[in-house]
Amino acid sequence: MPVARTDPARLVAFEVLRAVSDQDAYANLELSRLLRERGVSGRDAALATELVGGTLRLQGSYDDILDRLVKGTLQPPVRDALRLGTHQLLSMRVPTHAAVTTTVDLVKEQIGHKPSGLVNAVLRKVAAQDLESWLTDRPRPARTAHPAWVIDALAEALDRPAELDALLAADNERPAVVLVARPGLADVAELGGSALAASPYAVELEGGDPGAVPAVREGRAGVQDAGSQLVALVLARAALEGDDQRWLDVCAGPGGKAALLAAIAAERGAGVLANERQRHRAQLVAQGVRAARAGVLGVVTGDGTRPPWSPGTFDRVLVDAPCSGLGALRRRPESRWRRTAADVEELVPLQVALLDAALDAARPGGVVLYATCSPVVAETAGVVRTVLERRTDAVVEPALDLIGDLEDAESAHLPGALQLWPHRHRTDAMFLSLLRRR
Fold first, then answer.
1. DSSP 8-state assignment for residue 75
2. Which sequence ranges form a coiled-coil region, renumbered to this chain (predicted)?
3. Which residue, 87, 109, 136, sits at the end of a domain?
4. Per DSSP, what are the bridge partners of residue 223?
5. Largest CA distance in the chain
6. Which DSSP symbol is given to 212?
7. Which of 4, 123, 295, 397 could form a disulfide with 266 if both were Cys (CB 3.0 to 4.6 A apart)?
8. Whether pTM exceeds 0.70
């Protein structure tokens, strides 16, 4: 049997790309699984992570280059290998010889000898120019590695033409690792890193494996974007008269926001009921809130649009609705190639139903926070307006006073609501609208 010459990092990266292409796998989950199963760690794990994330983020630009160099149709595995090699040549400090040789070896071992000559020739042509030269005068979708419909949707949501290219560039940057120190369980000082404006519990790591941080291993802290932390904080900071003991997270999976809410609730003598429709995600929620169990009323598996709880039960309600995910393209880069405009149209009725049910779950005087990790107008301001147009017992509550020192964060499409942006706030593009049940 021939000895494999492909290094572990590149092999893992290629297999993740194939799983994303063939099986619609989530890159982050597939990458974590393979790194763990293969025992890949340290610098090799960091390399595999950059190869996967960088290749997927810039896939549209790389395909534009490859399609100009290759006549005919590329087999999907060969295209994935070429994307991987192109990323090393144009966006990493990998010498040309190393990038070409390792990719050719990978093709020989994983695909076969026949396409290896083509791969060698194409990558040597790719190496003849830098990325900027390849993309000069190309259409914006190729130049920015975003599908045209995504660019249009983001441009409408941003409503500032002068900032659009900065936003698209921010989507293509490797995101920093951000940790949350869950209050009452961990302190930001023990996590290291630097503070972020969006959340007093957030720190940005300069590098390294977050799993090596003791508080993360013990569940007292976690990996969570600062924008996602702000979702929990805005709900918890909203003024409330009367009872404040029963909180609800309608769409709790995979559990990060529920864990932060539970930690905050525990300090106030309150508790969170975490609901998740999918059983396997509900199990993830249960694991995530274990350290903050003093603030947990329970974890249930149920449909948030047809809930098992009685109307008017809760004082604070979070509905972090399923969405297109176009606000988290730095972290879930495959979303831009997987989602379509039709997906948004299909999601909106579900989002409307979830917000309606969340308002029903809140008691009179209680608050509901509607959030999405998408800035798309139809999924954000459009959903809130649709719900408010047909009911008279709810109103948007201005939330600008609840976000601390964060500036320039009001939604361009719904006064009082919040819209975060990666190029402005160094967070995912989270949308937040606080509503009060009359």
1. P
2. none
3. 136
4. 179
5. 73
6. G
7. 295
8. yes
| Tally: H helices and E strands in the chain | 19, 12
Q: Which residues pair with 12 in a beta bridge?
A: none
382 is in an annotated binding site: no
Contact in structure between 60 and 148 (CB atoms under 8 Å): no
pLDDT in tens, 166-194: 999 999 999 999 999 999 999 999 999 89
Q: What is the pLDDT of residue 143?
A: 97
362 is in an annotated binding site: no
List, for residues 327-379, the tens digit of each pLDDT value. 999 999 999 999 999 999 999 999 999 999 999 999 999 999 999 999 999 99
The answer to whether position 169 is within a domain reads no
Catalytic residue flag (residue 373): yes
Residues in the chain: 438
Q: What is the pLDDT of residue 206?
A: 83
CA 197, CA 233: separation in Å to the nearest integer? 13
Q: Is residue 198 part of a domain?
A: no
Cβ contacts of 148 within 8 Å, gap of 6 or more: 140, 141
Does 303 carry a binding-site annotation?
yes
Residue 218: inside a domain: no
Task: Tell me how far apart the alpha carbons of residues 214 and 33 are, in angstroms, rounded to a whole number.
Answer: 21
CB atoms within 10 A of CB 346: 10
**Is 415 among the annotated ligand-binding positions?**
no
Please report the sign of the dihedral spanned by the C-alpha atoms of residue 338, residue 341, residue 347, residue 351. positive
| CB distance 375 to 431 below 8 Å | yes
Residue 70: C-alpha distances to residues 67, 131, 279 (Å): 5, 17, 45
pLDDT under 50: residue ranges of the chain: 1-3
- Please tell me the distance from the alpha carbon of residue 347 to that of residue 364, in angstroms, as a whole number: 28
**Domain with 251 in it:** 225-437
Cross-sheet strand order for the sheet of 199-205: 194-196, 199-205, 177-181, 221-223
Which residue from 384, 374, 419, 377 is spatially nearest to 399, judged by alpha carbons? 419
As a whole number of angstroms, the distance between CA 103 and CA 106 comes to 5
Structural tokens at position 15 = 């297999």
Token duo for residue 74: 């590329």
Domain end call among 116, 136, 156: 136
Secondary structure element (H or E) that encloses residue 272, with its range: strand 271-276
Q: What residues pair up with 205 in beta bridges, in sequence order?
A: 177
Q: Among the options 45, 233, 270, 373, which is catalytic? A: 373
Q: Domains in the chain: how many in total?
A: 2
**What is the helix (H) or strand (E) element at residue 345, kind and residue range?**
helix 341-361
Cβ-Cβ contacts under 8 Å for 88 (sequence gap 6 or more): 51, 94, 98, 99, 102, 103
Q: Are residues 392 and 267 in the same domain?
A: yes
Instruction: Please name the helix (run of DSSP H) or strand (run of DSSP E) that holds residue 273, with its range, or none.
Output: strand 271-276
